[in-house]
Amino acid sequence: MKTLREFGRRLNQKLARRLEDPGWLRWSLRLAWISFVFLAVTAVACCFSYLFLPVSQHLPINIWVFLMIVAALRLLCLALGQLHDRAGRKALDAQSAERHFSWALRMTPGDPDIYCHWGRRLMVGSASESDRQRARDLFERAQHLQPADDLPYVELAYLELQQGNWREASRGFDMAYRLRRGVAWNDLPERIPNETPAAPIVQAIDTSVSKLNHDAQQLNFLIQGNYLPQRFKPLMQAYQELLRETLGQGRGQGHGPNLHLSADQQARIHYCYGRNVLIAPVPEFPREVLNPDFDFEAAEAAYLAGEPQLVVIDQMLQPDACEALLHFCQKSTIWHDDQRPGGYLGAYMDDGFSCDLLYQIAHDLRDAMPGVFKGLPLKHMWAYKYDSRREGIGIHADGASVNVNFWITPDSANLAPETGGLLIYPERAPEDWNFHDYNQDTQKAEAAVAGKEPIRVSYAQNRAVIFDSRLFHATDKFHFRDEYLLRRINITLLYGS
Ligand SMILES: [Fe+2]
Questions:
Q1: How far is the C-alpha of 269 from the C-alpha of 245, rounded, in Å?
Q2: Helix-strand-coil percent breakdown of the chain, rounded to 5?
Q3: Are 321 and 406 spatial neighbours (Cβ–Cβ below 8 Å)?
Q4: Which of 150, 200, 299, 377 lies at 20 to 30 Å from 266 by C-alpha?
Q5: Closest C-alpha among 251, 282, 177, 268 to residue 216
Q6: Are residues 166 and 210 part of one domain?
Q7: Selection from 454, 391, 458, 473 nearest residue 419 by Cα
Q8: How far does residue 452's CA lie from ligand 1's centre (Å)?
Q9: Ligand 1 mean position to 342 CA, how many Å?
Q10: pLDDT tens per residue across span 306-315
């Protein structure tokens, strides 16, 4: 049974990859429509002959074959709904997207995901006010159809963010996170959604030694600090035991999520793995969070005159704001992205990395340097937490206009003070490159910057680098102390429409 499920999952992944190709998608749609029309005509003819013609002229189809035709029609409806949904997401013009989404909903009425995808498509590019209102209606309809689904909350939160309503966005992301990952041990009543989320589907865990090690260290820190009660101790021990076992077998070596856990191993940690166990969000500060002594006007002028556009800001935040963010990152069990090579874990705005202080910083920074950010909304934010000594993130550019990168771990953690920061290349990603080209295809990015000398910004706590997001950049080599509280953490804020 398990093998069959695994086979189905692999087949599905393979099919999804194929359908990324527009040619394949077009032909699949045609084939599905031809089959649908053929079966529909057969079913109607069959009904007609049974109802209106004498027995001698009935079509030679017995009731079982007829039922199979009806079942096949239902399956084709689902397939057509999915194919049109995919085609709508990929459509280049708004009209064609609208046509595809309308068909997707005719074939699978009431599918909340289709409403969400349609709304998201309306927000692509410079969406008009009426497009945004339509998107909002679609998201709200999806929310109404499936109140315990996190996706409509996420989409509505992104819409709020685009409209500059960060407090509403923050509430939306909070709600979505709890619907997806459960309610934390220490959650405040106002953060708990009314809807009961569906039980998480237990999937095969492909993780990494880095993730197991991080979670074991984090649980230890939380229990030792009394942030979690002693009853979590067996869970921490299960992590430690699993880690010892894995390392003893020589498994999970190298980088990336190459550690496949057995059902028994999964069962030992599934109360914690991928769940919202503890969260320590920082509220909005009732005063300024940016360093009042820093000359942001001069930094703005330097950025605008620079070629490439880049500026370094030391002590960007008030020390207690930086400290508060560090505590949020160390205490919260939000480090769910373990699918990246290079020994680092990710936490994203729409998956736990969201607290009012972060939005306040993003908002205040935009106000402090209006010429740099040009009123652009915050588009995304995330944080990465690293092992003490690994390779970090390869050369890439990000899909936004302005990128703010800053570090929050104390300088004493950095054993090689000249490094540990960011390498920024004086080369922008070409305009005709798509997201995959400039963000995922490291070899292509490396070729684009070949022979170019990067600007090295060394690591410092509370140091920010603000730069044109299309500039290629990479994590510099780093060597930090091997302690949980001294892990390198960098935060990225992306601004753009
Ligand atoms: Fe980046």
A1: 14
A2: 50, 15, 35
A3: no
A4: 150
A5: 268
A6: no
A7: 458
A8: 18
A9: 14
A10: 989 999 999 9
CA–centroid distance, 396 to ligand 1, in Å, is: 6
Tokens linked to 411: 């300088």
DSSP annotation of 197 reads P
Taking the centre of ligand 1 as the mean of its atom positions, its distance from the CA of residue 139, in whole angstroms, is 29
**Cα 467 from Cα 27, distance rounded (Å):** 43
Structure tokens that stand for 3 in this block: 């093998």
**Tens-place pLDDT, residues 110-158:** 899 999 999 999 988 767 889 999 999 999 999 999 988 999 999 999 9
Give a yes or no: residue 279 inside a domain: no
Mean pLDDT of 395-421: 94
- Tell me the mean pLDDT in the region 162-190: 90
Beta-bridge partner residues of 402? 468, 495
Ligand 1 midpoint to CA 442 (Å)? 12
Distance (Å) from CA 490 to ligand 1 centroid: 11
Q: Quick check: is 360 in a domain?
A: yes
DSSP structure string for 33-98: HHHHHHHHHHHHHHHHHHHHS-GGGS-S--HHHHHHHHHHHHHHHHHHHHHHHHHHHH-SSHHHHH
**264 Cα to the center of ligand 1, angstroms:** 37
pLDDT (tens digit per residue) in 277-322? 999 989 999 999 999 999 999 999 999 999 899 999 999 999 999 9
Q: Residue 487 has what pLDDT?
A: 95
Of the pLDDT bands very low, low, confident and very high (cuts 50, 70, 90), residue 208 is confident
For ligand 1, the distance from its centroid to the CA atom of residue 360, given in whole angstroms, is 21
Q: Within this chain, do residues 69 and 148 fall inside the same structural domain, yes or no?
A: yes
Q: What's the pLDDT score for residue 188?
A: 77
How far apart are alpha carbons 235 and 242 in whole angstroms? 11
CB 333 within 8 A of CB 276: yes
Interacting residues of 66 by C-beta distance below 8 A, sequence separation 6+: 43, 46
Q: How far is the CA of 339 from the centre of ligand 1 (A)?
A: 16
User: Cα(115)–Cα(137) distance, rounded to whole angstroms?
Assistant: 9
User: Higher model confidence: residue 190 or residue 432?
Assistant: 432
The confidence score (pLDDT) of residue 402 equals 97
pTM of the full predicted structure? Answer: 0.86
Domain span at residue 301 reads 296-495
Residue 338: both structure tokens together? 């373990």
Residues 39 and 133 in one domain: yes
Distance between Cα 398 and ligand 1 center (Å): 5
User: What are the structure tokens assigned to 136, written together?
Assistant: 């909002």
pLDDT per position as a tens digit, 74-117: 999 999 999 999 999 988 888 999 999 999 999 999 899 999 99
Ligand 1 centroid vs 397 CA: distance in angstroms? 6
214 and 362 part of one domain: no
Measured CA to CA in angstroms, residue 313 lies from 303, 409, 463, 486 at distances of: 11, 16, 6, 22
Whether residue 209 contacts residue 243, with contact meaning beta carbons closer than 8 Å, is answered with: yes
